[in-house]
Amino acid sequence: MTTLKTQDYSIFFNEKAYESLNKHLSEANYSKIFIIADENTNAQCVPHILANIDSDIVYDILEIESGEVSKNIEICVGLWEALSDYGADRKSLILNIGGGVITDLGGFIASTFKRGIHFINIPTSILAMVDASIGGKTGIDLGHLKNQIGVINTPKMVLIDTYFLNTLPENQMRSGFAEMLKHGLIANEAYWNKFKDLSKLTTDDVDELIYESIKIKKDIVEQDPLEENLRKTLNFGHTLGHAIESYFLSNPKKEPLLHGEAIAVGMILASYISTKTCNLATPTNQEIKDTILSIFGKVKFEQEDYNPIIELLIYDKKNEHGNINFVLLETIGKPKINCTVSNETILEAFEFYES
């Protein structure tokens, strides 16, 4: 897979990733390397990476608990203190090795420690490869509210090694497909169509789908790095998806959802809302629902869940001047931003999802 170059950094793949990392380490004169990982990636991924690093730079591993529960200010304080205790300085480098939580959190840690030190993202899940590690968004949650605190700051490079997909459980693999489906829906119908029958996909096909998905996101971000217009389309399915994810995370009666599982629901809801607001064709809406449910199955909602989820929409990052802004579809590959939606239509969308 060919290296993808952005305005600020490059995305390297497989063998080229380690060649590029070692070249960078030999030239950058870092004082020390700090690896941020969770217990899973520390055990399953860090040894593989260290075996491919050809450098005498001293390193320390900072391990945190896996999952969204670690994406908070308390963990940040612990990591900042650890960096300070272990002698990190302005010439230190952070390697973020993990899924979306690690790349979001680690990028934020690096961007704020001593007013900013270099970091490199090495995503180990599909979701992190195609979405979280690309585009420079870093951040943490505020309580159970997703991604409320953060900065946009780009890594020195992103290294994609699809070897790590062998370490993923099935639900994590499936979670990553949600962002890839989204990229097809907002940008490329031909790409979306490749997901109609995943049973026929080979390992090489998955590698190519990941590459195409990364390229779609890269091209969108380059045109609108600060999310003033076009980049907002990447939030398709996320307005309700994030609210659902937050609600399931904070409700002790609910089993927390993976990010992609919540976004999958959000995309089905946004697709239905698009039929009411943007004239998305009914057969297209049904196709979107059937395709997503064939991959993810259905999440169980109770009637009393709907209003608390809707109430969480006021915290969505796309909101402006008191308006809750949705990204919707006029057709596959043609999104529309800054759409306002009534609560009645949202409730109808839940009914459609359940039907």
From TrEMBL:
Keywords: Cobalt, Lyase, Metal-binding, NAD, Nucleotide-binding, Zinc
Domain 3-dehydroquinate synthase N-terminal, chain residue ranges per copy: 62-174
A Pfam family matched in the record: DHQS_C
Gene3D superfamilies, alphabetized: 3.40.50.1970, Dehydroquinate synthase-like - alpha domain (1.20.1090.10)
Top-level taxon of the source organism: Bacteria
A cellular component term, taken from the record's GO annotations: cytoplasm
EC assignment: 4.2.3.4
GO molecular function, one term: metal ion binding
Function in brief: Catalyzes the conversion of 3-deoxy-D-arabino-heptulosonate 7-phosphate (DAHP) to dehydroquinate (DHQ).
PANTHER family listed in its UniProt record: 3-DEHYDROQUINATE SYNTHASE
UniProt protein name: 3-dehydroquinate synthase
Organism: Oceanihabitans sediminis
Gene of this entry: aroB
